[in-house]
Design goal:
By secondary structure, this protein is an alpha/beta fold. The chain is built from 13 helices and seven strands. It has a seven-stranded parallel sheet. Helix 2 crosses helix 3, helix 3 runs parallel beside helix 4 and helix 11 crosses helix 12.
């Protein structure tokens, strides 16, 4: 479960805004009952960590993953590495946990900057102290994956993959990661809700892909498969993916997702190959020139 929406107004298809704390508690309770086992958060997700700390309680079954600050610098220094440790301990305090399952470098390019190894040493030190079980990075591209695998023995990676964004499948990077025994967490299964929206309701920024999405919706409609189910099926059927990170803003959304997960698969990932898209201006939400709500 992704938690950006617990601390921020997040997602192009989310008209609800930030999820109220009482609703977060209901979502977490239902998630635990339905076998959700990973919570993905970050210090940059507004007050998401504080909200989770309020709602989780002392005894829970979740594996919690958080992320480092983003530095966006060409040169990393020792002060940045010390800040990373400080922010991690602040995350522990906000989450009210003694240790976490995972810690990811939020911006993979920080690791690849000059002297970025100082950040790796910092998160490895945190791991060696038993404060996290697995360390790694959140990535956006094959270039980042190649560079990180060359330099750092990561345990865990988070990456984007969905019906439109099949780049890391075609390039063989998902297979390569699994061959190395790296735990793969897939995010953006719904592409921030883009795959769930009626194409006719999309902002003008998405005019280049409107016809493509209309064809996709006709394809799944003819097979009586909902947008939620088809988007989930595609990622869940990728054998290289260990965990799919899905954000929800309400208990109703979670219930719809869980219902789609337990239904028998209608199609395989191969059935969706023709809907791959190549324009990074569409595949990377950070480039979207629309209000991110």
């Amino acid at each position: 479960m992704g938690t950006a929406q617990f601390g921020l107004d997040y997602g192009i298809s989310n008209p609800l805004g930030k999820t109220p704390v009482a609703e977060v508690k209901r979502i977490l309770d239902a998630a635990a009952e339905n076998g959700v086992h990973v919570i993905d958060t970050a210090s940059l997700y507004g007050d998401s960590e504080n909200v989770l700390g309020q709602c989780l309680g002392e005894h829970h079954s979740f594996h919690i993953i958080t992320k480092t600050p983003q530095y966006n610098k060409s040169l990393i220094n020792e002060e940045n590495a010390e800040q990373l440790k400080k922010v991690f301990h602040e995350s522990l305090a906000r989450l009210k946990q003694s240790s976490l399952y995972g810690l990811l470098v939020h911006n993979a390019d920080d690791l690849l900057a000059q002297d970025g190894a100082a950040l790796w040493e910092a998160i490895n030190d945190i791991k060696n102290k038993g404060l996290v079980k697995k360390i790694g990075a959140s990535v956006y591209s094959a270039r980042q994956i190649d560079a990180i695998l060359e330099k750092f023995p990561i345990d865990l990676i988070q990456l984007p993959v969905n019906i439109l964004d099949q780049r890391l499948i075609g390039s063989g990077h998902l297979e390569r990661l699994k061959e190395r025994g790296i735990e793969v967490h897939a995010r953006s299964a719904f592409l921030q809700g883009l795959l769930l929206m009626d194409p006719s309701d999309l902002p003008d920024y998405f005019c280049s892909i409107r016809l493509h999405l209309q064809q996709y919706h006709r394809f799944i409609g003819a097979r009586n498969v909902s947008p939620v189910k088809s988007a989930l099926e595609f990622v869940l059927n990728l054998e290289e993916v260990d965990t799919v990170i899905i954000g929800v803003a309400s208990l109703t959304q979670l219930e719809e997702i869980m219902h789609a997960c337990v239904d028998d698969p209608e199609m395989t990932a191969d059935d969706y190959r023709n809907f791959a898209w190549s324009d990074e201006g569409i595949l990377d939400p950070s480039r979207w020139k629309v209000i991110n709500r």
